[in-house]
Structures are given as C-alpha cells and as structure tokens.
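Ops channel
N.P.: pipeline sanity check, posting one input/output pair.
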C-alpha cells in the first residue's frame, strides 16, 4: 500500500485524457498533473529540445515524492523516453508500448495505422515497437500536425476538424487498416470526427487510456496502490492559469476540483 501520488505530464492538455482514465481505474490515487502549456507543442520541435523538456518535466514531478510517472505525451514517449529511462529512479511509463500492445491484440488483419505529431512519426518508435511485437504487422504512419491546434482551440467537431481528418486519414483508410492508434494524447478529443472518416469497423486505440491501464497493472504488481476511497488531483501549468480550467473540463468531461498553479518549468 502506498499513498504517494502518481505524476502525469504532457506538453499541454492532451495528457488529461490519460488523467481521466487513471481517475476512472484508480479512484483512490492522488495525482500531480503537469501540463507544459507555455511550451506546447512539443511535436514540431527537435528531438534534443523534446529531451530537455522531458527531463525538466520529470524533475518537477519528482519534487512531490512521486511513486510512478506516466508520460502522457506521445511525442515525449517516442522521442525522449527511450533515451532517458535509466536516468531516473522512479518507474516511468510512456504511452507507446501500452498502445502498441493494445493495437497488436485488437488487429485482425495485421494492418495498423498510427497517427501522431511530426516528432512522434519522425522517431519511428511506434513502427519499431509494433514490428518488434510482431514482425508480420503492416504499419502505416501519418503525422497530423493540425490536430493539436484544432483540439486546443476547441474545434473537435465540425467542418474544420472534418476537413483535416479527411486530409490525413483517407490514405490510411485506403490501405485497409482495421486498427488505428491515436498516438497523440490530444487526438481522443477528435474521436467522433475520426470515426466518421474511418468508419465503425476500424478500432481506435487511445494511447493515454492504454497507459493508464498499464500503470494500474504495474502498481498492482508492485503492491503500490493506494487504499484511499477518493484521491485528489493537483494541476500545474507553465503558462497562465486563466482559461486552463474551461479547456481542461472539456478534456476531463467533468468539473475540475483540484487547484491549478503556474510554475517556472525552466527552473528544473
Ligand atoms: N499531447 C502531445 C502528444 O501526445 C501532442 C502535443 C504536442 O505536439 O506537444 O504528442
């Protein structure tokens, strides 16, 4: 039994899709969430910059005596985590392996699509991880750079979202994929639009939610779960707090109860 909090971070708000799943699966856990809203997006940055930001985000979370960290960011999970995993004592899970595991077991025809930021697709890590799990899988990747700004600005449905989704996804649909990894934690907010374009026969894999499932497995195995009836969530951001609550509630699909504070992430 362990009442220390779980640390979760993302470049911005996308990681809240993972927080939502952790709250559902592990309601007794305290959560410290950091959204690097002052430096979002990570996806269009160089791998060295993503690496620097990821180290700082982890160092900030470690100031809370964290028992487990989830990198709820597809970009940091792909471009940074493989290079820094051994630098920290705390166990760190990314979204990549859990999402690949779920996709490999969901696919019936062995054709899997992966969508993510430019940084994620450029890293090739989803492709590599899926191929390692099953060399016979056929993987089709596509960067969708407009999806994050659409989501951050609330355009999750409607003509703009639909146009972008058609532009990015019709080529994947033409390949006959039966499973699509939403490899960026912002993308679950576009689920309805993505489903409209891809059709109901394609299974959508929410990478942040899969990371939450994986975290539960790891904490259970290590006997690190909390036995509290109800956990708390504290939110930290690197840009102004104003406006965070409204958009965060859209991600969480519920009212935010915990405090929201701004921090200077460059200090970590
Ligand atoms: N949520 C981030 C991810 O999962 C995307 C946003 C960004 O580009 O920083 O990759």
């Amino acid at each position: 039994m362990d009442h220390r909090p779980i640390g979760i971070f993302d470049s911005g708000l996308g990681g809240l899709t993972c927080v939502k799943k952790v709250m559902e699966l592990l309601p007794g856990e305290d959560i410290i969430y950091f959204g690097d809203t002052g430096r979002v997006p990570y996806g269009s940055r160089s791998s060295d910059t993503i690496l620097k930001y990821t180290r700082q985000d982890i160092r900030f979370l470690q100031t809370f005596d964290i028992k487990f960290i989830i990198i709820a960011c597809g970009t940091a999970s792909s471009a940074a985590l493989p290079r820094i995993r051994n630098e920290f004592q705390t166990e760190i899970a990314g979204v990549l392996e859990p999402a690949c595991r779920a996709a490999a077991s969901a696919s019936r025809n062995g054709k899997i699509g992966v969508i993510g930021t430019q940084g994620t697709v450029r890293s090739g890590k989803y492709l590599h991880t899926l191929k390692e799990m099953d060399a016979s899988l056929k993987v089709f990747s596509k960067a969708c750079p407009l999806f994050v700004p659409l989501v951050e600005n609330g355009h999750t449905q409607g003509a703009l979202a639909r146009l972008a989704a058609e532009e990015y996804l019709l080529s994947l649909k033409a390949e006959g994929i039966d499973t699509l990894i939403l490899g960026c934690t912002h993308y679950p907010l576009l689920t309805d639009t993505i489903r409209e374009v891809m059709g109901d026969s394609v299974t959508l894999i929410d990478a942040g939610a899969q990371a939450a499932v994986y975290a539960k497995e790891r904490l259970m195995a290590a006997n690190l779960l909390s036995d509290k009836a109800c956990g708390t969530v504290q939110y930290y951001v690197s840009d102004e707090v104003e406006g965070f609550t409204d958009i965060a509630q859209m991600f969480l699909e519920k009212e935010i109860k915990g405090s929201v504070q701004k921090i200077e992430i460059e200090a970590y």
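N.P.: looks fine end to end. The chain has two domains: 6-94+209-267, 96-208.
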